């Protein structure tokens, strides 16, 4: 019977889908663990450089550094960190939606996009929003070299006056089940002088606090961007893991339904054949 | 036994070393400088060069740094290196 064959084919296809999604879920889980430990490993440096920056901001007094000075904001560069790959639930959609909302709520040209990752590029390529730069592919593991290249590009645009402010929009990894799209100001670097740290007194600065501070700023920015990229990667893998997990579950439910239907149909066919045989024998005995 | 101080060597990607050392020599932007326990508070930028450590117990270790920062305060030293290679035994 043809509908039975159709049903069997359907079951096989859903079984394949289930297998693939299960494999992808497991791969994403393994990658998530790696991404998480990489993000963790970068934390001591980031917190130390933040601490140094705050101490120096207090010690240096009047700071006249281009990366530190807030200007009147006419144009803002919005750095949108998306993934290169899809199949990760609403991960990319949330980012793109957030960015588009910001673009719509501000006058034309006030926000220029810097797109990191293929998904963001693909989305905004077809739309009329101003795109400053595209950085893709994103390395599969958070890399300081990539973060430095991107930081340098942003610093150049900021210092040359092309943009007056740089914001980062990325996904903060909270836990394997939770992530949130956040926006942070990237440039100018806002550093509040540390308060109540009297041990600063008597510290020797070589050559002097101002020039160390000036050298520290781009590194601080780089570390911050690296952390954002590492968080984004971890969030992407966790989003994919969740998405594939629920796809696997859905496939399982569909499979149960289809198998039940197949069995019923098979039984109906058998019953019908039996009835025909019995009916035939009866007619012969007549 | 020489007195020791805590040293952390960090790069943007990971923590390379964490522990007690007796002596440390770093390529400061104004020239090499040696640090022993109870050094006065100091912050300096680093130039490219050789980072030499004598661990508690006398074993030496050497890295090559690209640049970065160095801080000592309250008997804690921190090296923030832009990038770091090596880690082999040395003087």
From TrEMBL, chain A:
It is found in: Cell membrane; Membrane. Produces ATP from ADP in the presence of a proton gradient across the membrane. The gamma chain is believed to be important in regulating ATPase activity and the flow of protons through the CF(0) complex. GO terms for molecular function: ATP binding; proton-transporting ATP synthase activity, rotational mechanism. Pfam families: ATP-synt (PF00231). This is ATP synthase gamma chain. Belongs to the ATPase gamma chain family. GO terms for cellular component: plasma membrane; proton-transporting ATP synthase complex. The gene is atpG. It comes from Eiseniibacteriota bacterium. F-type ATPases have 2 components, CF(1) - the catalytic core - and CF(0) - the membrane proton channel. CF(1) has five subunits: alpha(3), beta(3), gamma(1), delta(1), epsilon(1). CF(0) has three main subunits: a, b and c. Its main location: membrane. Keywords: ATP synthesis, Cell membrane, CF(1), Hydrogen ion transport, Ion transport, Membrane, Transport. GO terms for biological process: proton motive force-driven plasma membrane ATP synthesis. It is a peripheral membrane protein.
UniProtKB/TrEMBL annotation, chain B:
F-type ATPases have 2 components, CF(1) - the catalytic core - and CF(0) - the membrane proton channel. CF(1) has five subunits: alpha(3), beta(3), gamma(1), delta(1), epsilon(1). CF(0) has three main subunits: a, b and c. InterPro entries: ATP_synth_F1_dsu/esu, ATP_synth_F1_dsu/esu_N, ATPsynth_dsu/esu_N. This is ATP synthase F1 subunit epsilon. One of its GO terms (molecular function) is proton-transporting ATP synthase activity, rotational mechanism. It is a peripheral membrane protein. Transmembrane segments: none annotated. Residues 5-83 form the ATP synthase F1 complex delta/epsilon subunit N-terminal domain. GO terms for cellular component: endomembrane system; proton-transporting ATP synthase complex. Belongs to the ATPase epsilon chain family. Keywords: ATP synthesis, CF(1), Ion transport, Membrane, Transport. It is found in: Endomembrane system. It comes from Eiseniibacteriota bacterium. It holds the Pfam family ATP-synt_DE_N.
């Amino acid at each position: 019977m043809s509908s039975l064959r159709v049903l069997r084919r359907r079951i096989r296809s859903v079984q394949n889908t289930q297998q693939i999604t299960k494999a992808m879920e497991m791969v994403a889980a393994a990658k998530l663990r790696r991404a998480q430990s990489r993000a963790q490993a970068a934390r001591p440096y980031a917190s130390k450089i933040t601490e140094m920056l705050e101490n120096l901001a207090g010690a240096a007094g009047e700071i006249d550094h281009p990366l530190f000075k807030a200007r009147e904001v006419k144009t803002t560069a919005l750095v949108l960190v998306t993934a290169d790959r899809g199949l990760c639930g609403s991960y990319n959609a949330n980012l793109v939606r957030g960015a588009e909302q910001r673009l719509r709520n501000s006058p034309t040209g006030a926000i220029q996009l810097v797109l990191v990752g293929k998904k963001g590029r693909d989305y905004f390529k077809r739309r009329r929003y101003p795109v400053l730069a595209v950085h893709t592919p994103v390395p599969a593991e958070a890399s300081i070299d990539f973060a430095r290249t991107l930081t340098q590009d942003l610093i150049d645009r900021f210092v040359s006056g092309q943009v007056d402010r740089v914001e980062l929009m990325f996904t903060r990894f909270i836990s394997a089940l939770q992530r949130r799209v956040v926006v942070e100001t990237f440039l100018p670097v806002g550093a509040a002088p540390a308060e109540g740290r009297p041990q600063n007194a008597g510290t020797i600065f070589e050559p002097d606090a101002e020039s160390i501070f000036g050298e520290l700023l781009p590194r601080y920015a780089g570390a911050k961007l690296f952390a954002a990229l590492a968080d984004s990667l971890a969030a992407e893998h966790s989003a994919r893991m969740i998405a594939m997990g629920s796809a696997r579950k859905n496939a399982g439910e569909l499979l149960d339904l289809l198998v039940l239907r197949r069995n019923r149909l098979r039984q109906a066919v058998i019953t019908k054949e039996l009835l025909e045989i019995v009916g035939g024998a009866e007619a012969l005995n007549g | 036994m020489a007195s020791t101080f805590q040293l952390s060597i960090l790069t943007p990607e990971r923590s390379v070393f964490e522990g007690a050392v007796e002596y440390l020599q770093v390529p400061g932007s104004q020239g090499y400088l040696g640090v022993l326990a109870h050094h006065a508070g100091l912050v300096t930028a680093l130039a490219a060069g050789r980072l030499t450590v004598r661990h508690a117990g006398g074993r030496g270790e050497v890295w090559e740094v690209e640049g970065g920062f160095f801080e000592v305060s309250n008997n804690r030293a921190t090296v923030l290196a832009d990038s770091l290679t090596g880690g082999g035994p040395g003087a």
